[in-house]
Design brief:
By secondary structure, the protein is an alpha/beta fold. The chain contains 8 helices and 9 strands.
Length: 235
């Protein structure tokens, strides 16, 4: 079987993102979302989930955001030193605790803002929490394949809007292999998002809600599932 989790990152970042995620769940193909608990809009994000019980919510660990400039990458903000193992573990526990307070439950999956959990102390800490909770960790759970190519910027931060078109999304669906695949996305209703990734978000939303995508899923026998369903399969 081909099982596809479509996960919206940055849930809770701002109201535009919250509304975009919910719209992409109601009218599009989003099945799960990853919550940024440090932002004030996280409260509204959690409130909206109560009316959408089929939307799985995971923790989007948030310790920094970087922007590309001519001289290289520089941090827009940094919550802790990502190389300080003790600080990493403490911050991860703090964000997990905040998630539990807001949602009243454990996360159904784990990932991080700008993929900072791929290596170093955060990789070890997130792996440990994933094993403790029995939930998938993005790119670190072998049974869940990750696709991050539905993304509208290149490695240098330049625009690649063709990568988030309906046609690109149809191509991704057609190329899916059997097993479980996670496809990440970043929908919002407008581009007024305080993020290095802003103009692309409403373009993603448009593609995710295009009815041709649902038709392609049916044609290629791809079943949409949430991370809650994947967690049950893993047990």
């Amino acid at each position: 079987m081909k099982l596809l989790v479509v996960n919206a990152d940055d849930f809770g970042l701002c109201e535009s993102v919250n509304r975009g995620v919910i719209l992409a769940h109601e009218q599009g193909i989003v099945t799960s979302a990853s919550l940024m608990v440090r932002h004030a809009a996280a409260v509204g994000a959690c409130a909206s989930v109560r009316a959408h019980p089929n939307l799985s919510v995971g923790l989007h660990v948030d310790i920094a955001e970087w922007v590309r400039e001519p001289e290289g990458w520089r941090p827009l903000y940094q919550v802790i030193d990502p190389h300080d193992a003790q600080a990493v573990r403490a911050e991860l526990r703090r964000q997990l605790g905040r998630f539990r307070t807001l949602m009243g439950s454990d996360p159904t999956h784990l990932d991080s803002h700008q993929h900072v959990h791929r290596e170093g102390p955060l990789a070890e800490a997130v792996d440990a929490i994933g094993q403790e909770l029995g939930v998938p960790v993005r790119e670190r759970t072998p049974r869940v394949r990750y696709r991050g190519d539905f993304y509208g910027q290149g490695a240098d931060g330049g625009p690649l809007h063709d990568f988030i078109s309906v046609e690109a999304l149809l191509g991704l669906v057609a190329a899916l292999d059997s097993g479980v695949t996670e496809l990440a996305c970043h929908p919002a209703i407008d581009d007024g998002v305080d993020s290095v990734y802003a103009a692309e978000r409403p373009l993603e939303l448009r593609a995710l809600c295009d009815p041709r995508v649902r038709e392609a899923l049916a044609a290629h026998e791809v079943r949409l599932v949430s991370f809650a369903a994947v967690r049950e399969v893993m047990r």
